[in-house]
Amino acid sequence: MALSKKRKCHFTEQIQKEFPFIRPCRPGQDDTVVHCTLCQSSFSIASGGRYSVVEHQQTKKHKKGLTANALTPTITTFYKKTEPSQKEFELAVQEGILAYHTMKHNHSYRSMDCTAQLTKKLYEPKFSCGRTKGEAIVNNVFAPWATNMVRQDLEQVEFVSLSIDSSNHGHLKLLPLIVRYCKANDGSMSIETKLLDFVELKGEKAEELAAEIMVVIEKFSLENKVVAFSADNTNTNFGGLNRVGRINVHTKVKNALQREVIGLGCPAHIIHNATRTAMDTLPIDVEYLLTKIFGYFHIYTVRVERLKSFCEFVGQEYQKILGHSNVRWLSMLPALERVLKMYAPLKAFFLSEEKCPVVLRRMFEDPLTELWLAFAHGNLAIFSETIKKLEGQDRCAVESAAILREVEIKLTARRDDSFIPVLARGLLGELVENAAITRENFLNTTQSFFTMAVNYLQAWGKHTDNLNDLHCLLLKNKPLREEIQKATATLQEKCPNVKIKEDDLFDEVSALHEFLKGESLLKWREIETPLSQRWSTVFTHFKENDIPHTNLARLVSVVMCLPGSNAPVERVFSQMNDIWTDSRNRFTVPSIKAILIVKTNINLLCDKFMEMLAKDRAIQKKIHSSEKYANQVRRGRERKWE
After folding, report:
1. For residue range 17-28, what is the model confidence (pLDDT) as tens digits?
2. Are residues 320 and 434 in the same domain?
3. pLDDT at 77
4. How far apart, in whole angstroms, are the C-alpha atoms of residue 270 and residue 641?
5. Helices 86-104 & 589-601 angle (0-180, nearest 10)
6. pTM for the whole thing?
7. Residue (of 335, 440, 435, 314) closest to 377 by Cα position
8. What is the C-alpha separation between 193 and 213, in angstroms, rounded?
9. Same structural domain for residues 184 and 121?
10. What is the number of structural domains in the chain?
11. Three-class SS of residue 561?
12. Whether the Cβ atoms of residue 167 and residue 573 lie closer than 8 Å to each other
């Protein structure tokens, strides 16, 4: 007869409930070996189960640990439990504003040790806010405070959109999650962009990104409020140009929410990529030329001094050569403009250099180089100005779609009319006379430039075509009733959680038409009034005159919460890079997250923040209390058991 295998006894909830000081050493892997937190011993319960724990309690080491634990007070016994005095509340405001000021202006927390000592000696003997306390205030008081303010806003709004982007800091892959919503306050409407989370990723797969998004959605109870997802136009986020396949973040978020969610790529990325694609059709590599010229002078004083002498010789005032980076979208135009202004001395300089790089010598020897640089400069302005418009903080996706369409129309007109910039026109005439180029060859190349840009915009801009139905809500003109009905149908198709009572909407549109009979539209066009301010004017009038506008406000809030670009997420990374420098490299992700949440979600001047802090006794009490350090102690204990 075969012997039966001995059954292992595992760590159970009953054992944990009866003996709270017992924990598994390797939870989820091997729960037959447990750890005693009183005497720091490990033993097996595989054979005895509960009896093994009872037996362990009788050992000398456990009894000694039990006695020591009973005699040792917990850290919370040292916390201040009395109600602070008025003087202590005032001191908490002072310490809080110093911590905020240090964080706001990217000062090192180490500087707070010196500042606190000087303040103590010069002004207030009881003042104490060194680097440890300052960091604890920012991480454990201000960051939760800023998050709770956003949470309260999110409880009041009906619709939100989420934006993400990922980037590296050294070997760390970081992901900020931005929420955008339309906030109504006494009839006025404002667009709010806040940071919900800032997490470290182990990878960059669609599954991991979607999982982090769903964690935030559940944490802030946004399951029924998300109407749009915004990110850059990568395959991971949207599945490529045609948005096909199921292994992308947008599809996974829709599947998790079990409904349609509007997918918004970044139009600023589209314009930038269209620029680079069109520039590739030119006979010279403009980006490479700008980078090479800048690198030749960047850190070489002797070369710069020689260039200055050439400037004096040709009667040209010296101006510093500007750099260009392919991740700095707006840097190409000023860099190119500077090279064109300095073209004569630069050409003389490089042609006289004994060890001039071959590629630069060839470019400056070519008589057509200046012509193509002038053509590129004359057309780069339209792309740069468009990117500046798209990156506005309050720009909505409907406005961005209209801007993309305007750029496409302008480039098409330039192609059809064989547009030649003024500067290039003069150079072309001279070169044609000297038989260096024919006008036909030049126009063939420029046609390819414009055609490539237009084709790229049409291919990637097709996903914003359905937003054209919402253009009437921008209030650039008096919206027709049919346009409002079409916009309503489009929104309800794309966002099933948008509920509109169309019968009531009919009367609200009538009231809107009555209001727009005045001079509002003309004034808005003259001063280019932002969209949020236009609708705030309308709804403030409705509220003051008790005119119902619930459904119209619902339509507008959806449109206004659609982000116009991914620039707010990029700004988070810019702030991070300003804080997390090589000289301040001991920051951790939780500390950076706390700073970014406070900077993004509060973002007040120091004096305004002090006024807000002085009115909130609960926050003052948290600053005064020692409990702000408890989270740091708790996190240290949790890491021990990870």
Report:
1. 788 888 887 766
2. yes
3. 58
4. 47
5. 100
6. 0.81
7. 335
8. 16
9. yes
10. 4
11. coil
12. yes
